[in-house]
Amino acid sequence: MKLGFVGLGIMGESMALNLVKKSNTEVYVFDFVKEKVQELVAEGAIAASSGKEVAENADIVFTSVPKATHVKAVHEEIYPVVKEGQIFVDMSTIAPKDSIALGEEMSKRRAYFLDSPVVKSKQAAIDGTLGIYVGGPKEQFEVIKPFLEMIGSAVVYMGTNGKGLVMKICHNMLVGEIQNGVNEMMVLANQNGINWEDFSAAIDIGGGKNFYLETKGKAIGTQDFTTAFSVENMYKDVNIAGEMISEQGLDLPGTKLVQAVYQSAMDKDFGGEDFSATFKIVSDQ
User: Fold this and answer.
1) 168 belongs to the catalytic site
2) pLDDT of 153-181, one tens digit each?
3) Which among 52, 120, 163, 168 is annotated as catalytic?
4) Does domain 166-284 have CATH number 1.10.1040.10?
5) pTM of the model
6) Considering the domain 3-159, what is its CATH architecture?
C-alpha cells in the first residue's frame, strides 16, 4: 500500500518523515518549498511535482496544511485523478463543517475522507508521540490506524467525519483557557514577589498542576517565545471554536476572553511567536 503526504510544514515534515522511516513502503511527498521535499527524499521519500501527482501514485494520501482554503485547493487539484476506494486523511485543523463538506465531495467519487487533527507540539511530531483525533468512516479508520500509530502514540476514534475536528477545537480552546489562567496568576504572583521558578514548583504540588505550565513556564519566565506552536495558529483554532459556539447559540464567557487575548496578540504582531507569548498581553494589561 503506497502512501502520499502533501504539506511539509512545521508539523507535516516530521509526520511525513516518520512514515518514511517506519512504513516500509513508498511515500510520495509534495510541498511548494522544494528544499523540504529534497530533505525527505534524502531520507527515502519519493518526490512529487504536485499534490495531483501524489494522488496519482498513493493509495492513502495525507495532507497537513495551514487552513481550510489550502485543503480545498489540494482537493480541487486532485479530484480529476481520485480513484475508487482511495483514502484521504487530512491532519490540518479546519472547521468541522468544512471537513464534512470535503468528505461529501470525496464520497461522490467513491473515495473516503477522514479528519485526523493532531495535538501536542513540534517535538512530539519529531518523536512520533502526537495525539491524534479521528473522524470518518470506521472501516477506513481501521485501515489507516497502523500508519497513524507511526505518527502518534495515542490515536482516538471520535466518530463520523468532523468529530475529530470538533474534539481538536475543544481541546485547543481548553488549552487557551488554561493558558490564560496560568498567565494571569503568574502576573499576580510576580507582582507579589514570587518568581516564576517558585510559582511553577508550588503549583506542581497542588491541584493547579497542568501541562501548559510544565511545558511553558520556563519560556514565560525567561521571555523566550521561540515558536513550537504559533499565536497565529492558535488564533485560528480559538476563532473556529468561537464560530461553533455562536452557531449553536451558546454563551461561554471564558472562550470570549481567550478570543480577545489572541486578537490583541495578533494586533500587536505576535502572530509568528509561540502561543505562550500571549503572556505579554496579560502582563501589559
Assistant:
1) yes
2) 999 999 999 999 999 999 999 999 999 99
3) 168
4) yes
5) 0.93
6) 3-Layer(aba) Sandwich (3.40)
